[in-house]
């Protein structure tokens, strides 16, 4: 059962909304190669606000994801796509279906 999660909020620069959405879609093949990432969601919360929510069974899985290819790609592109640094929150899950 998943006990750990990450919630990342991303704010696109004006005019970069479609590029942020495309970036999230392009990340899916990378996460498919992460055996410890149970669920991964790319989200659009508003016109320029996006997010990533992912779940893990272990803290080690969450740590591996934070050190993986998606995090690396996000940080490499943050300056050109995002109006501010991503806000990444560590989440402990208390109920899962």
Assign a percent range to the helix content. Answer: 25-40%
Strand line-up across the major sheet: 2-3-1-4
Order of helices and strands, N to C?
EHEEHHE
C-alpha end-to-end distance: 9 Å
| DSSP strand tally | 4
Radius of gyration: 13 Å
Spans of at least 5 consecutive residues whose pLDDT stays below 50 are none
Shape: globular
Mean residue pLDDT? 96
How many helix segments? 3
Strand content range = 25-35%
Q: Largest sheet, if any?
A: 4 strands, antiparallel
Structural class: alpha+beta
Q: How does this model look, in words?
A:
- By secondary structure, the protein is α+β, with helices and mostly antiparallel strands.
- The protein contains three helices and four strands; from the N terminus they run E-H-E-E-H-H-E.
- Strands 2-3-1-4 form a four-stranded antiparallel β-sheet.
- The model has no long low-confidence stretch (mean pLDDT 96).
Quick synopsis:
The chain is α+β, with helices and mostly antiparallel strands. 38% of the residues lie in helices and 31% in strands. A hairpin with a 4-residue loop joins strand 2 (37-44) and strand 3 (49-56).
What's the layout of helices and strands?
Blueprint: E1 4-11, H1 17-32, E2 37-44, E3 49-56, H2 59-66, H3 69-81, E4 87-92
Antiparallel strand pairs: 1-3, 1-4, 2-3
Task: List the main descriptive attributes of the protein structure presented here.
4-stranded antiparallel β-sheet, single chain, 4 strands, 97 residues, 3 helices, alpha+beta
């Amino acid at each position: 059962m998943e006990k750990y999660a990450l919630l990342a909020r991303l704010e696109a620069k004006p005019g970069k909304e479609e590029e942020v959405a495309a970036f999230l879609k392009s990340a899916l093949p990378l996460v498919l190669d992460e055996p410890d990432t149970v669920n991964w969601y790319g989200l659009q919360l508003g016109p320029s606000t996006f997010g990533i929510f992912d779940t893990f069974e272990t803290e080690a899985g969450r740590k591996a994801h934070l050190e993986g290819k998606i995090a690396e790609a996000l940080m490499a592109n943050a300056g050109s796509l995002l109006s501010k640094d991503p806000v990444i929150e560590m989440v402990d899950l208390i109920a899962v279906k």
